[in-house]
Every structure is written in structure tokens, then in C-alpha cells.
Amino acid sequence: MKKFLSILLTVLLSFGLLAGCKGDSKDNSVTEDSTTKENSKEDMKGKKIVVGRWGGNDAETAAFNQVVKDFTEKTGIEVEERIYTDYNTEFQAELIGKTAPDVVYIDAYMAPFYISQGVLMPLDEQEFELDKFYEPLKNAFLSDGKYYAISKDYSTLALYYNKKWVNEDDIPDTLEELWNGDFLTNLNDKLPEDVIAMTYNQDLARNLFYAETDGASVIKDDIYSNLGDSKVVENLEPLYTSAKEGKIKTPADIGQGWNGDAFGNEKTAIMIEGNWVLGHLQQNFPDVDFGVIEIPTFKGNRGTMTFTVGYAINVSTKQVDAAKEFIHYATGVEGMATWSAGAGVLPSRTDVTESTKVAEDLLKMPHIKGAVYATVWQKGTTMDTINNEYKNYIPSVVSGERTLEDALKKSEEEANRTIEAN
């Protein structure tokens, strides 16, 4: 009997397949696919999803609310917003308690950790049109050939200069010449006594792209610090030679909280900073006349850092289709245009960059150019430990207490001791 049923099933399947081959199969499949999609969207009306994010300024809040409003009007899917004040702590607690939202912000820096924990759902490259995204932003959430979040916006670093003291054409084309040539020395001689030529940061979030130039890596074997590597030391030498010579100083050295205040208060003529500083300068220091250019090349290469946040789906969500629909809209042409224009951020999609004409803003254009070649601020799951030790030991280089090689080796040893203990 089993053999008879098996043969009968085979015959029926064969007949069905043959019958399906008759007529215009292409038109049938298109019609069926279209009908399926329409039915699927109809089925999602009245669904509700929770989207977790951290709070922003008033413009970001208004822009997010507008995206949600437009999305709900188009799809019928309701969105409940969940605001985090201590994102990593709260989100991880929710994951443990199985109360995490359906969709959540994921910072690229933390993506390797959450991906390694298996709590994020893989997302299809074609479904979310990832070919339209800047490559570094697309790959910020890539692991083992799968994408786990879709970038919603980004920031990059660029060089800012005060036009009162600096002529753009005089700025050296390379970081080596900027840091180690006569430009900063000559500039400093012309500045008022309480103004320095340039500020900098002792932080791998700012220094990583030149630390890793020419194939160098600050990490080895996926988790261990490699800061003492001779290539890394060589790459960082020009920066800290300049710092030891007093040509550049940190904002703290001159009594300022960060680059934005140092530059806005006209305590420095040049800084390298992210595009988030634009609003700060325009709102709080409207009289400062400044320009923005791409960071000068280093060892013949263009480089900068990029920081991005994406939308991800909780792997345990019961609203998979609705969650995907939200991300598809929020990171699609319409949703991203609404978000980026309203929040004043840079769109992660190249086509939205074009449609919103944001690149016509001369102050933002250097940041946008950087999206093509930027290094993502992300490096495995132990970067906090590695960067903390870097920041602990680097001041001793500037003070002359240690050589750069010795300080980086010490920071490597301390970081790896902590990593092994955990």
C-alpha cells in the first residue's frame, strides 16, 4: 500500500508540474507573486511592533515620529517606541528576560557582540537593497556572509579650519606634512597666545584608520591586542611625534571639554571632528567662520573613521514580517529621506544622498566623500579593553615618560591580561 501511495503521489506531482508548464508561466508567476504580496500586506494591517532606540535631540525625535506616522499610514502596522537611557544594559536585560523589542537600534561598534550571541536575525541583501548603500556601512553589519542590520545613517570625520587664521590652500595635502612639517609651527607663531594650532584625540575611535594603514592591525587572533606590532607603532609615530613637540594638543590640555568647544571658543585653529559638530557650531558659535575639507592623506591613502547605527530584528520576534516591513520602509528611499532631512543626519543610501541633494552642502560634502573609503569604528568584541589600555598609556608618551613602542607594548600586555582573565 505504501509503495502504491508513493507511486500515486509521484504521478500526481509530475502531472501538476507538467500542467504548470503549459501557457504563459511567466505571467502566472508574476500575478501570483503580486497577489501574494498584496495579501501579505493586507494581513499585516493591525499588527503591532515595538521599536527600541536611544533618545536623540528634538529634531531626531520629530523625524522618527514622522517616519513612524508615514509607515503606519502606508501599512496599517502600529509602532510602539521604546526609549533606552542605558542602551546596552537595558537591551541585554530584555534579551535575558525575553522582553526585547521586535526591532532595535544596533551600533556598529556593538554589532560583533550581539551577532556572536545569536540574538539578531539575518537579513536578505536583495530584499533590503543593500547594493544602494555605501560599502563600509553595508559591511558594518556583515558576519560570515550574512547581514544582521541595515544602516540608517552615519557620521565620518573631516578636517575643520577657522578661516580667520587658516587659508584652505595652505593646508598640507598629507597628514605627515601636517603633523611633522613646518605648517603647524608657523601657524602657531601667528596665533594669539591663548590659541593653539590644532587639537587631536588620544582614542582609537579617532586613530584607528591610520593605525591600521598598509595592512597593520591592532587586533590579532580575533580578540587579542596587537598594539605593540611594529607596523602599528610606525603608523602612530607621526601623530605622537607631533604631540611630543607640542604642535598639537588635546582639548583637555587647553581646558576644553571636547574639540567642538575648543574650536567654537576659538582656542584652536584646526580640528578633526565628526559631522555631528556642525549643528553645535552653527547653533552655539554662529560667528565662527569655518571651512571643512577631507582629512589629508596618510601614506598615500585617503582615510577617515565612520560611525553608523542600523536597524536589526530580534531573532525571537513573533512579528517577523511586520518587523521586516518597518526596516524596509525606514531604510528605503522614502523613509530614509524623511529621517535624514528631518534629523539633519547623512543618509546611508547613495540614491538618497542624490535625491535629497545633501551633497550640495559644502560643509557636509567632505564627510559624504569619506563614506566611500572610511574605516568603520568596529573591531571584534574586545575593543573596549584594548582602547581603554591604549588611552591609559598614550599620555606617558606625550609626557616623555615612555617611548611610543614601550607604551603600546605595555598597553597590549595589560589588555591581553584582562582579555585572558575574562
From TrEMBL:
Pfam families assigned to the protein according to its UniProt record, in alphabetical order: SBP_bac_8 (PF13416)
InterPro entries cross-referenced by the UniProt entry: SBP
Which BP terms from GO are recorded?
A: maltodextrin transmembrane transport; maltose transport
- Family membership, please give it: Belongs to the bacterial solute-binding protein 1 family.
A Gene Ontology cellular component where this protein is annotated is: ATP-binding cassette (ABC) transporter complex, substrate-binding subunit-containing
The domain of life for this entry's organism is Bacteria
Q: What is this protein called?
A: Sugar ABC transporter substrate-binding protein
Signal peptide range in chain numbering: 1-19
This protein's record includes keyword Transport: yes
State a single Gene Ontology molecular function.
Answer: maltose binding
- Per the UniProt entry, what species is this protein from, by scientific name? Vallitalea longa
Q: Which UniProt keywords apply?
A: Signal, Transport
